[in-house]
Amino acid sequence: MLHDFAIIGAGVTGTAIARELSKYRLNVVVIEKLSDVATETSKANSGIVHAGYAAPEDSLKAEMNVLGNPLFDDICKELYIPFERVGSFVVGVAGDNFDFLEKELQNGLERGIPGIEIIKDVNLIKKMEPRITDDVEMVLHAPSAGIISPFGLAIALAESATINGVEFHYNSPVQNIEDMGNFYIIDCPTRSFQARHIVNAAGLFADEISRMAGDFSFTISPRKGEYLLLDKMEGFINHVLFPVPTKKSKGILVSPTIDGNIFLGPNAKDQESKIDNSTTIYGLEEVVQGGRKIVPSIPLKETITNFAGLRAVSDTNDFIIRASDNKPRLFHAAGIQSPGLSSCLAIAKRIIEIIKEGGVSLELKDNFYRSREKPIVFKELNWTERDQLIKEDPAFGNIVCRCETITEGEIVQSITRPNGARTVDGIKFRTRAGMGRCQGGFCTPKVIKILSRELDLEEDEIVKREARTKYFYGHTKDFRRHKDATA
Fold first, then answer.
1. Catalytic residue list
2. Pairing of strands 330-334, 192-200
3. Phi/psi at 207 (nearest 5 deg)?
4. pLDDT tens digit sequence for 255-270
5. Which pairing describes strands 262-265 and 192-200: parallel, antiparallel, or unpaired?
6. Between the chain's N and C termini, which has fewer beta carbons within 10 Å?
7. Confidence band (pLDDT; 50, 70, 90) for 320?
8. Helices (H), strands (E): how many in the chain?
9. Whole-angstrom Cα distance, residue 440 to residue 432?
10. What are the beta bridge partners of residue 76?
């Protein structure tokens, strides 16, 4: 089958582009090397929708962030994505470069960022953010900054794209791309795809995809960021809290998440490996020290996990959003590091503009479905609604994840929805089962049983994320027999 467009990569950028292309009379396929959407850079993301003042002047980062931020209100309403504009502070303490904050304020005013201001009234600052350091002297306040689940956004965008006819193929790492003149052949281990056009949204590996297609114009380097995630502490802090940044990083944040947790991080470490997302004791100590400069009373005993993510840094340190200079019908959305999440909706619209400028005729559909069925979230229902739901489907009366109050009905729903879950992590990112205090210690076996039943697979075929992340390797008695035989 010849597709009009093949999008390589299913992070927040790739899924945003997929949804935007699904508005047109096109045959579109998304090719993702891993098992689900948002399983790489987008997964380990701060989940912050930046206001737009911080990116360098005359950069695509700045332009896309400023254009992208206002787009979140409508799309989150259309697709039932939790999103909250909690606002952000850049916290200036004694010894910081306050001239920098004034410069950022001017950037914000010139870019039309609503409500941006510097607050020097320490009493007011402490009233707005009671646990902020006593060393605070001023803050740059941007009320339009927000918080969102990055994988929740990607899942919703992918589901919307699927409803509107886009195909998603997972576990399909691209091995070779051949230009046939009027179309490309994209080879993956188990099948090949044919497409007239390619949109390269491959994140950390976008330069490698580009080279496969014959374009050697840019390189991508990984930059690691480590995080600590604390248990839910509603109201512990109210805003996204930044330090005064460095040239390389926005610094160690302290921020609420859309689900009520608190995180510290990330730091910024350049490295060679594009797959090493391990955490280190030194990195986590840096994260703790940085976080406590802003909020000294952070209760580390509430830590439930730590993790790291890798950012895709281009050789220009800016987004690459353009048609290829030397390969026709190849379009790049590459080097999408921070503020990539904030920019993804604007990047998708810009890619459409570039495609049209390249002479591709795009015809809007008459029947584009803007919304999707609202997912049932049991713990958000009142008791009357819960009782009625359980009468209709008793699976909603079976609590599987106690930490997050996730029911069997919600897990089944996450499997059967368009572009549904096929792995334990797929369930986790769609429902939060396994994201609570015990980190899946109680519910994982139950989730495996439900996946096995709903997908008609043996339990030992269910994986955490990829084929290599198996839970079961055999029967205990077989291991004992092997041990006895070799004793």
1. 50
2. parallel
3. -70, -35
4. 999 999 999 999 999 9
5. unpaired
6. C
7. very high
8. 14, 22
9. 10
10. none
Which pairs with CB-CB distance under 8 Å and at least 24 residues apart come from 126-132? 128/238, 128/239, 129/89, 129/237, 129/238, 129/239, 129/241, 131/236, 131/237, 131/295, 131/297, 132/89, 132/91, 132/241, 132/294, 132/295
b/e string for 426-461 if b means 16 or more Cβ within 10 A?
bbbbbbbbbbbeeebebbbebbbebbeebeeeeeee
Residue 195 has pLDDT above 70, yes or no: yes
Q: What DSSP line would sit under 23-43, residue for residue?
A: TBS--EEEE-SSSSTT-STTT
Identify whether 70 is preceded by a cis peptide bond (ω within 30 of 0): no
pLDDT digits (tens, 9 = 90+) for 392-433: 999 999 999 999 999 999 999 999 999 999 999 999 999 999
Q: Which amino acid is at 482?
A: H
User: Which amino acid does the sequence have at 127?
Assistant: K
The DSSP secondary structure of 136-164, one letter per residue, reads EEEEEEETT-EEE-HHHHHHHHHHHHHHT
What is the token pair recorded at 399?
A: 């609590």
Copy the structure tokens of residue 174: 């691209």
Mean pLDDT of 323-351: 97
188: which 2 tokens?
Answer: 């993956």
Is residue 68 within 8 A of residue 342, CB to CB? The reply is yes
Domain annotation for the chain: domains and CATH numbers: 1-82+148-219+315-374 (3.50.50.60), 88-143+222-310 (3.30.9.10), 378-461 (1.10.10)
Cα(165)–Cα(183) distance, integer angstroms: 21
105: which 2 tokens?
Answer: 């304020």
